[in-house]
Amino acid sequence: MNEDYYKILGVDKNADDKAIKKAYRKKALEHHPDKNPDNTEAEEKFKRISEAYEVLSDPQKKAHYDRLGHNAFKSRGNGRNPFGSTNTHGGFDFYTSVFTNGGVNNAPRVNSNIQIAISVDMERIIRGDEIVSDVQRQICCSNCMGRGFTFTNETCSECGGVGKTRSAVANFVFEGICAACKGTGKKTVKCSSCKGRAFSVKTEKIAFKVPPNINPRSIVRLPERGNLVYHQEKPFVGDLGVVIDFPKVQGGVSLKDGNIYTSIRVPIDSAIGGANIKVDILGCKEFEFALDPNKRTGESYKIDGAGVSDKHNAFVKVFIDLPKKKISSQDKEKLAELMREVYGEPVTNFKPAT
User: Fold this and answer.
1) What count of Cα atoms within 13 Å lies in the side-chain half-sphere of residue 212?
2) Maximum distance among all Cα pairs of the chain, rounded to whole angstroms
3) Which residues form the domain of 279?
4) What is the DSSP letter of 346?
5) Are residues 54 and 114 in the same domain?
6) Does pTM surpass 0.85?
7) Angle subtended by helix axes 17-31 and 90-99, to nearest 10
8) Long-range contacts made by residues 282-291, C-beta under 8 angstroms, separation at least 24?
9) Eight-class DSSP state of 112
10) Residues 318-349: tens digit of each pLDDT
11) In this structure, are 32 and 126 located in the same domain?
12) How many domains does the chain have?
């Protein structure tokens, strides 16, 4: 008895195209033969999942299936399945069309580009450390060019060598590329080199410098460090994209476009005296600048060339602290008298700040 296509994909009959495609992608990835080598049960499930998706993703076929069930796709005379073929490669065609771009014959089942994520501390960005990491690359088989099968000189028995199949549903005739021979009209066999897996996985170590002006979640692109695939029967190596993640704020420090931002608190005597002060940035960078007695508390200082590189800057917001130690009444009076001489009588009437 044929299993219900909706149950195979795990969707209800009111599911829209987006939900059907999402369910197919999830189940196809789970049961794909590349992830389950030599597992006949997984291969059979993958074929049923692909068969269900071909029908439910096509508005005409879906309408016929909803009305007649599996009887809708028994063509007159041969009783073939919706793929127009009983060959096991049919499911791979649909997997390729959903998960990759391009035609079945030219597009590999793997993406040429790779993207990985690496988390680092902010200090490593400021120091300009070299980042080292492992990356897994997929290398498509050179014998079958990433297809998992090769063509023979024998005529395809499914389509009789014409490369196309036809199936009739009620008064409609559906024509498509033969899933068994990929439209070539030739019989296919499992690749003897890769045993049908299409590609191998190779772990490599990468090392690169992080650009000084990088921001959290930015991508560093490394050309030709991605997967090796075949396009139009020619080898092609994609790029590796490395997402560099580091804290937006760490130890009171933040980075943006290579500039360093932080804030400090200084005693009032250092501010008034215009002292030269040093600022330690996470123990990996230090710079020095002079305080300006005329600047108010909370104002920023720009230190040229003190950013992640000498082409970037540091911005320090300086807050002025009043004396924390307990002082005598006489010393308080001396300070008050000095402030009156400089600023005049203290202001006692205020309005809300705007």
Assistant:
1) 15
2) 113
3) 254-343
4) P
5) no
6) no
7) 120
8) 282/122, 282/123, 282/126, 282/250, 282/251, 282/253, 283/123, 284/123, 284/126, 284/127, 285/126, 285/127, 285/260, 287/314, 289/316, 291/266, 291/318
9) S
10) 999 887 677 788 887 887 888 788 778 877 77
11) no
12) 3
